[in-house]
Amino acid sequence: MPTVHLLDYAAGNVRSLVNAIEKLGWQVEWIKSPDEVAKAQTLILPGVGHFGHCLTQFANAGYVEPVKQHIRSGKPFMGICVGIQALFEGSDENSSVPGLGVIKGRLERFRDDEKSVPHIGWNSANTSLKGEESVYGMRPDSKYYYVHSYAVPYREGELEKDGWTVATAKYGSEQFVGAVARDNVLATQFHPEKSGAAGLRVLRAFLEGKQSQPLTKDPHSASTKEGLTRRIIACLDVRANDQGDLVVTKGDQYDVREKSDNAVRNLGKPVEKAQQYYEQGADEVTFLNITSFRDTPLKDMPMLEVLRQTAATTFVPLTIGGGIRDTFDPETQRTVPALEVATLYFKSGADKVSIGSDAVTAAEQYYASDRTLTGKTAIETISEAYGAQAVVVSVDPKRVYVSTPDSTTHNTVETSMLGPSGEKHCWYACTIKGGRETRDLDVIQLVTAVEAMGAGEILLNCIDKDGTNSGFDLELIRSVKAAVKIPVIASSGAGNADHFAEVFEKTNVDAALGAGMFHRGEWTVKQVKEELEKKGLMVRRFEEDV
Ligand code: 1PR
Known about the structure:
Blueprint: E1 3-7, H1 15-23, E2 27-31, E3 43-45, H2 51-60, H3 64-72, E4 77-80, H4 82-85, E5 90-91, E6 106-109, E7 119-123, E8 126-127, E9 133-135, E10 144-148, E11 150-151, E12 165-171, E13 174-182, E14 185-188, H5 196-207, E15 212-214, E16 231-240, E17 246-249, H6 270-280, E18 284-289, H7 302-313, E19 318-321, E20 327-329, E21 334-336, H8 338-348, E22 352-355, H9 357-368, H10 378-386, E23 391-395, E24 397-402, E25 412-414, E26 425-432, E27 437-442, H11 443-453, E28 457-460, H12 474-483, E29 488-490, H13 497-506, E30 511-514, H14 516-519, H15 525-534
Parallel strand pairs: 1-2, 1-3, 3-4, 4-14, 5-6, 16-18, 16-30, 18-19, 19-22, 22-23, 23-28, 28-29, 29-30
Antiparallel strand pairs: 6-11, 7-10, 8-12, 9-15, 12-13, 13-14, 16-17, 20-21, 24-26, 25-26, 26-27
Helix pairs in contact: 6-7, 9-11, 13-15
The protein binds ligand 1PR.
Ligand 1PR binds at residues 235, 237, 250-251, 254, 256, 288, 290, 292-293, 321-324, 354-358, 394, 396, 434, 461, 466-467, 491-494, 514-516.
């Protein structure tokens, strides 16, 4: 098997990259010290998270000169995400830390006046080479998975005059550098290992040294329009049934037991279902371990194996939720910090972790201490180590009706879904332990607190809507979107394709998630996307495997 070397210099959830490389028939060897760089023929510099943090680790470990030497020598080199950022002169994310300066230019933060930051989702990589040639397999009709807050603004001709071929993407009105290539160097801001078949094609072209190839058109692929697509996420609530098997289940307002015999509703096997949704074109897959509040020995955490198996064949982002908190391990009698729990998941193939109950507790403490950030919460420690984009907060709110907004101190919305006594207003109370306990904290308080702590995305459920197939709670979504700048995923209530269209057309939500309608086989993700396209909403189409 041919070998590719990966540079191991900072904490990062790089399991997915290893999986993708292995899927393409290559084996990975890690470079663990600067003197080993010289032995690499083909070198990849991965990187996720904070520019300053990554580049400082990189420089302190003594990698700057050996990597520059590798690049100068003409041997194949690829940088991914922070790995492309490292090649530029610097980044506004931390102006005191220099980049390698291989390419002229600096990274700037996306403006968040009209859009969410980080930029998360599937966007283009349109190369400046016109005509029938593709650079490292990148196609103008494919979409690639990006997740970042800083980018190099694209200014026509500037990089090209130094011989770089540039692939661009557009976020809102900002056009930025999605990838660059010159001689032996390829670098991508997007994650090829998380970009389905389109990304694997780029990775393979790099590994095989095929810098330019004739452009072949995929008859099934989407339009060549630049920009972010509407993101559709399939969510799998997972728990053990009464026989002890892990099953995908789905509740009605969080009650997952059948009315007839009280058995846990069994809608399939987690790994199979995830694979199925990947093949239907799901842009992400989320697993929620819904009975995680029970203490389990760490080594028996059931979702680790589910993730390992799923990540080996499913090349889109995977999120895992449930039990991400400081955890008492009954076997070792030790309290394991949340960061360590998250690390186990990242090493098993997760790209993001989703925090539910613990985020509520952390937000309560934040307000009780006059908005003090301790740096010790699960959100803060994981965000610091793996980057904000790796931390999702899953919110489980429930409506509390009030007659007038001033009868409560909480943030209310005016609602068209009247309360039991005809109330026209409600606030959304946060719950913990899968809706079993309601807290005196409203959803706006929660999301603004976790944004301040460094969460990168909100997964916004709604207990009143969960499993009802009656559409998303647009009032809730609008109020949360107005309160935060980080992306928000709408969840709970999807019953058909029109509900997805409605939430994208009537709110500015960033992504939408469905569970029951997919599990029961009433709709496939592909069908939902086809309906969205008919309404003029841009989606990513599934591409056949490489
Ligand atoms: O609190 O950090 O341990 O995390 C537990 C996680 O498990 C939380 O993210 C919480 O939302 C989730 N959870 C706990 N109990 C349940 C339950 O259903 N009994 N599921 C549960 C939450 C919400 C979504 C669901 C959407 C869409 N389920 O996962 O998929 O509502 O459903 P639909 O499209 O069928 O309407 P912690």
